[in-house]
Amino acid sequence: MDAEGAEPGMVRPGGRTARVRESVLRAAGDALAEQGFDRLDLADVARRAGVGKTTVYRRWAGTAGLVADLLADMAEQSVPRTDTGSLAEDLRANARLVVRTLADPRQGALFAAVIAAATCDPRTAEALHRFYAVRIAEWSGCVDAAVERGDVPAGTDAGEVIRAVSAPLYYRMLASGDPLDEAAADRAAEAAAVAARAGVYVR
């Protein structure tokens, strides 16, 4: 563990170190999307990033630490939530963002690789859980705002509403192979909004 309990590679650097980190994480994302977690190799990532192998090994120690830092960076760089004043519109924006991400050739392949790795690698699973906790917390604000407006019942579990939007979209990517498009996004958002208004997600 590094300073403040962070995993190797998780301390936020500045200057040249920040540029190295950015290059390495971009290279790691490319490698994951192309080859999957099983073939992720720190030496290959270093070559792709144009940095020395010792730099990568010293900073990240192993592939799990590198993936954890990649997911932390992705959470930081993710698009902020929408605030339209309408729960249905906010959830639709969230669902369409999920679809754009999962349908993107690079990003979709990257997420699929990390999710697959998380099923058998505890550190990757922990990093993935942290990533989604950040994103769910970010988007939960639109549900909390809807509660304050009286659009959905008091006590509505905001995180559960956001999970309900994403779940059918991830199912399409990982299990059914059904189309991932805006129509699917809009149906998922509407179903979650209707259920929330009906009190399904009240704790």
TrEMBL record:
Residues 41-60 bind DNA. Keywords: DNA-binding, Transcription, Transcription regulation. PROSITE patterns: HTH_TETR_2 (PS50977). SUPFAM superfamilies: Homeodomain-like, Tetracyclin repressor-like, C-terminal domain. Pfam families: TetR_C_11, TetR_N. Residues 18-78 form the HTH tetR-type domain. InterPro entries: Homeodomain-like_sf, HTH-type_TetR-like_transc_reg, HTH_TetR, Tet_transcr_reg_TetR-rel_C_sf, TetR_C. It comes from the Bacteria. The keyword Nucleotide-binding does not apply. Gene3D superfamilies: Homeodomain-like (1.10.10.60), Tetracycline Repressor, domain 2 (1.10.357.10). PANTHER family: HTH-TYPE TRANSCRIPTIONAL REGULATOR RUTR, TETR-FAMILY TRANSCRIPTIONAL REGULATOR. This is AcrR family transcriptional regulator. It comes from Streptomyces clavifer.
